[in-house]
Write a structure and sequence with these properties.
The structure is a homodimer. Chain A is α/β, with parallel strands linked by helices and about 475 residues long. Chain A is built from 16 helices and 16 strands. Chain A has helices at about 5-20, 30-35, 40-55, 80-85, 120-130, 145-155, 180-190, 205-215, 230-240, 260-270, 310-315, 330-340, 345-355, 360-385, 410-420, 455-470, and strands spanning about 55-60, 65, 105, 170-175, 195-200, 215-225, 225, 245, 275-280, 305-310, 320-325, 390, 400-405, 425, 425-430, 440-445. In chain A, the strands form 4 sheets. Chain A has an 8-stranded mixed β-sheet, sandwiched between helices.
């Protein structure tokens, strides 16, 4: 009589063997198995039947038992996961700005500059140097390489007035990209369920990070000169918020650039409410007719938490950013960053530092300014000529984008879909609004590939808008 | 009469000028300022007095007004931040394992293998190749480079039995290190305030990520063959938890290695409770007398979420890891990872893929196995000889650590402090316990620099323990 626990043991053992065997491999003959396991032939037969019923082996009459070809077509039911996971948090989906475009599409949707705008030679040389150095095999300190931290501090400190203590290297925490800095800042300085004031419209990545951190987003309308200080003050007072996220220079998507006076008013408002300004200086290297003057350089009271990324201007493969903060806020940020990313690759850090400390980096940035100006003006001109229904309300003094107003009652998502069908990809404006849209907008990026196609792109947008008007 | 708003305007303007001027630079003479601003001399004097009272300028009689040297010694009061930040979340501090050690210290505390255990030539060559490729200037897709995702899927799928569908490249999300994967998994699969079962003791980085995610940690005791399935089942039933975090192969810190039978029992328990096993296969490349057999390879029902990092075995500068999950869980994970890190540098991904697909990588791993065995045995022998009070209860079959039991009533933190004072750095065991310690332990890492000093290190530990016994 067959011993069922012995049979189970043989099944378990043979499953292990089968898992590493090639499909079609022959199993040892029954008599070998009888001898090996010290069981009866009936027990061996029982084990082989079990394996066969599991679809793992097949008998071929007169030949023996063989490992079956792996079956992978089984349809899985993951329904149980829905119960285990519970209701999803409401998270914005990934922006259109992050989608890769096929080569034959005119790409005005991306958030990243084309390779021709990057310091390619510098980046290649820096990676080659890093490959020969010890950093390829070493671990970076948690807060970042000391020299890179000092460079970030010095860059910001260069804008500090004489009566303001400039930031120190110790105030800097290096991050694997600024998205991680947004998440960390919202978690560490605001926290789940607590209010965060945020410009409307604002960077969609910040809205994503805010949703992930579970903070309660409170939109503050913001125009081409930033938010109205009285509105901002009211929002602080009404919600009890202790933090305001903003992009004072060349805001994404609007291109807004705060005047010095407006910046001082916002800083005073933030101070009066005992709050933080989370200043996202994403376009620090993308000035055209103006240069960013970080508010963080004019505050040494710990009110401004400053985010600066090198990813967009050095290379999308060099994901290095920094957050600069003073006081307990810095400790909270560092502890959060460590819990979520431990440290940033020392190679990426040393490549970033290598690039930005080369004399050729200054030359590159001067050249970049001219390229961005020419691209911006080319796209503006093309829109004026071919898409008169698309209105640019303010010519941006820097950054990478035009914020284009569409006729009222146009649905930007439908316009974007129709444009894409006609061969040009654009980013619908709704993704940048934390709440109601102030109007119908598209964001058009002039730093993408092939500015020679801007004319054709504008022509398509113009046609699509005409069609929509006719509806 | 002086016009106060004109004076303010001049103050603001000159502050901008001063901020970019060198200390000692001379301001334009008063008559120049009168003409430039179209104001009275009294207004100019008023503005200069204001600048002087701010400490920004100084008058030198008979010479003019000059920019003062920057004062940076001001002591800042960041007390307001405490109110703005609210009570800190209770977060474990960074582990002793992350501290950098001076060169003259015997380092048995680190969690990272020494450079001599890394495939240095492969890593250098891979970085040099990457420097010449287009990846240095391109953006990676959000979920990772397709080839690297396919490699991770194939590695795990190689262990799948014939009746289990192996994972596909589409199930893989590439991460900037496994710490980010822990954070993402705890946030996306468990969520704030909800229970997470966790082995005790367990990896301190997981405790840190759990604290950051705000999940409620429920310790499940785990011995050298993993957790007792009945205890685990009870913990699921009592807490309603839907996830269990574990390290089935060469657990950090204990070195525990689950038998196949135990693994099957745990998998069955997890399935029965409609739950996830978050399997951290951190030591996949560090087998000595055994090899990891991921549970994830034997589940295609979406119950196992698999974490695999290349950072420790390829290089600490190549921060690349992957999470492999199926069903809605993968979507939730991807959305969380994108919100916190957008994407991983394509250079690091292509370097990782380059290294692990070289034939020399297999040779390296074979060689590494021998090195780890020799180092483990050397440290074991040294402890046996020189530190008989330090007891290794189970010789680990892989991994990087010995988990050393100290005499009862010893305080591991004090032992660690005394060892450090005597020249050897060790990690006190308490950092690895989510709740009460099951005993007094040290974690000793045998993959650090200079195994030649293991004897001396053991001698010091032995002396410190003797001293403690005498107290």
């Amino acid at each position: 009589m067959a011993d069922s626990s012995s049979a189970d043991r043989i099944v378990a053992d043979l499953r292990t063997w089968i898992s590493s065997a090639a499909p079609g491999a022959q199993l040892p003959p029954s008599r070998t198995l009888v001898a090996r396991y010290g069981v009866s032939p009936v027990t061996v037969q029982r084990a082989l039947r079990t394996l066969s019923s599991l679809g793992l082996v097949e008998g071929r009459p007169g030949a023996g038992t063989f490992v079956r070809a792996r079956t992978v077509a089984r349809v899985q039911d993951y329904g149980w996961q829905t119960a285990a996971l519970g209701a999803p948090r409401s998270m914005p989906t990934l922006s259109a700005a992050m989608r890769a475009a096929p080569d034959d599409v005119i790409a005005l949707h991306s958030g990243y500059p084309d390779a021709e705008l990057l310091p390619g030679q510098l980046v290649r040389a820096a990676f080659a140097r890093a490959a020969r150095s010890d950093t390829v095999l070493s671990r970076s300190p948690a807060a970042g390489l000391p020299d890179l931290r000092a460079w970030f501090a010095a860059e910001l400190g260069a804008g500090a007035p004489a009566d303001i203590a400039p930031p120190a290297a110790a105030d800097v925490v290096v991050l694997p990209g600024s998205q991680g800095g947004l998440s960390a800042a919202f978690r560490a300085l605001v926290g789940p369920g607590r209010p965060l004031l945020i410009e409307s419209p604002t960077y969609w990545g910040a809205l994503l990070a805010a949703a992930q951190a579970g903070v309660q987003v409170v939109p503050v309308p913001s125009g081409s000169d930033g938010p109205d200080p009285e509105e901002l003050s009211r929002a602080f007072a009404q919600t009890g918020a202790r933090a305001f996220y903003a992009q004072p220079a060349f805001a994404n998507p609007t291109g807004a650039y705060w005047s010095r006076q407006r910046a001082d008013q916002v800083l005073a408002t933030v101070r009066r409410h005992g709050a933080f300004l989370i200043e996202d200086d994403w376009a620090h290297d993308f000035g055209i007719a103006a240069d960013p003057e970080p508010l963080a350089a004019r505050d040494d009271g710990g009110h401004v938490v400053y985010l600066r990324s090198l990813t967009k201007s050095v290379s999308p493969a060099v994901r290095v950013a920094a957050v600069i903060a003073r006081g307990p806020a810095r400790e909270r940020l560092l502890s959060d960053v460590q819990a979520s990313s431990t440290y940033v690759s020392g190679v990426l850090q040393s490549v970033a530092l290598d690039v930005v400390t080369q004399p050729a980096w200054r030359t590159h940035r001067r050249h970049l300014r001219g390229q961005l100006a020419a691209r911006r003006d080319l796209l503006l001109e093309a829109l004026r000529e071919h898409a008169p229904l698309a209105r640019v309300e303010a010519v941006p003094k820097g950054g990478l984008n035009l914020w284009v107003r569409l006729p009222d009652n146009t649905d930007p998502a439908v316009v974007a879909r129709d444009c894409e069908a006609a061969g040009v990809r654009v980013a619908p404006g709704n993704e940048w609004f934390p709440a109601e849209q102030a109007g119908a907008y598209l964001r058009l990026n002039y730093s993408g590939p092939d500015p020679g196609a801007f004319g054709e792109g504008a022509r398509i947008i113009g046609r699509v808008l005409e069609d929509h008007r006719g509806r």
